[in-house]
Each structure stands twice: as structure tokens, then as C-alpha cells.
Amino acid sequence: xxxxxxxxxxxxxxxxxxxxxxxxxxxxxxxxxxxxxxxxxxxxxxxxxxxxxxxxxxxxxxxxxxxxxxxxxxxxxxxxxxxxxxxxxxxxxxxxxxxxxxx
Length: 103
Prior knowledge:
The chain is mostly helical and 103 residues long. The chain has helices at 2-54, 64-75, 80-87, 91-98.
């Protein structure tokens, strides 16, 4: 009886170790896949950063003379639409000028 019990315990240990190794291999495989995904995303971030650095912000396109002209026209009582027609700047740009964005 002792011999049978030892054999069963040994088989159980072998079976347990095999199952554990299979489970560990499966998790390691999943971890490798996730790590590859992380590495790909890091590369994508670096690529996008490099691309972003090639873009330059717009420089101020409106001249100081135009800014002063818009302020003078507004001081004379003209509406945003009238100033827009005279200067050919959009009402949004005129609003920005008059609200001090370009000062």
C-alpha cells in the first residue's frame, strides 16, 4: 500500500508541475504579446513626437500698422463689420485685436 501511495503522490507532483509550467508558459506568452504592443505604442509616440517637432506655430500675420489701423477705426465708431470690409481682416481677427490679443 505504501508503494501505491508513493507512486500516486509522485504522479500528482509531476502532473502539478506540468500544469504549472503550461500555465506559466501561457502567461509568459501573453506578457510578451503585451510587451510587444507596449513597444509598438512607444515607437508610435516617438514617431508622432518627431512629426510634431517639424510643425511650426503660425507667426503673427497681422502687422503692427494693421493693428493700429483697426484700433483707430474702432475709436472712430465703426462696427466690426465695417472695419472688416475696410481692412479685409475677419471679424474674429478684429475682435482679437480689439481685445488685446496682439498687444
